[in-house]
Specification:
The chain is mostly helical and 228 residues long. It has 9 helices and no strands.
């Protein structure tokens, strides 16, 4: 139960910190943090939680990460569903807090609410194919970073920093394409509030990250397996 509570809190923080920066601070007149600020915010949520709850749950904060770690032989299958459940609920809780804060401004309109999208709902107008390739490849690389940084032969104590910086880089690349998901829990939580097109396009941001994570898990297990 401690692990699941930790995953709930960590995913809440990821959504509140990352999506919150996009909704509340990215486009603030003259002082907005822009794409770079949002990318850094997502990375910081992972870095801070890695050192806060990493020793409790491993700090997955992402169903695709949990699945990729399981495929890679680093995670027990019996804990997979509880972890994913805790992550999705934590994401929804984070989005709920964000909604309460954001809706306190006069004239508030929910708009896209930092939801992920493609086509006309992509920040840069990128196609479904572009979004699919982006989410699959970016999640694949994210899992390669995670599996490598947490390997028994990796430098100790730096995994959280490497993973957080990796997520920052991923956002710097892909925010213009999809608003960056690489995390089904993050996408589900925002889509539930944005509704409409966000729900219709949600399938891509569940399927592509999971496929990318599975491919990375298989590959990394093949090239650098942990000793039994």
């Amino acid at each position: 139960m401690k692990k699941f509570v930790a995953e709930f809190i960590g995913t809440l923080w990821l959504v509140l910190g990352g999506c919150g920066s996009a909704v509340l601070a990215a486009a603030y007149p003259e002082l907005g943090i822009g794409f770079v600020g949002v990318a850094v915010a997502f990375g910081l949520t992972v870095v801070t939680m890695a050192y806060a709850i990493g020793h409790i749950s491993g700090c997955h904060l992402n169903p695709a990460v949990s699945i990729g770690l399981w495929i890679g032989g680093r995670f027990d299958r019996k804990e997979l569903l509880p972890y994913i459940t805790a992550q999705i609920l934590g994401g929804i809780a984070g989005a709920s807090v964000l909604y309460i804060i954001a809706s306190g401004k006069p004239g508030f309109e929910i708009g896209g609410f930092a939801a992920n999208g493609y086509g006309e709902h992509s920040p840069g107008g990128y196609s479904l194919l572009s979004a699919l390739v982006t989410e699959l490849v970016m999640t694949f690389m994210f899992l390669i970073i995670i599996l490598g940084a947490t390997h028994s032969k990796a430098a100790k104590g730096f995994a959280g920093l490497a993973i957080g910086l990796g997520l920052t880089l991923i956002h710097l690349i892909s925010i213009p394409v999809t608003n960056t998901s690489v995390n089904p829990a993050r996408s589900i939580s925002q889509a539930l509030f944005a509704q409409g097109w966000a729900i219709e396009q949600l399938w891509l941001f569940i399927v592509a990250p999971i496929v990318g994570a599975i491919l990375a898990g298989f590959l990394y297990k093949m090239i650098s397996p942990e000793k039994e």
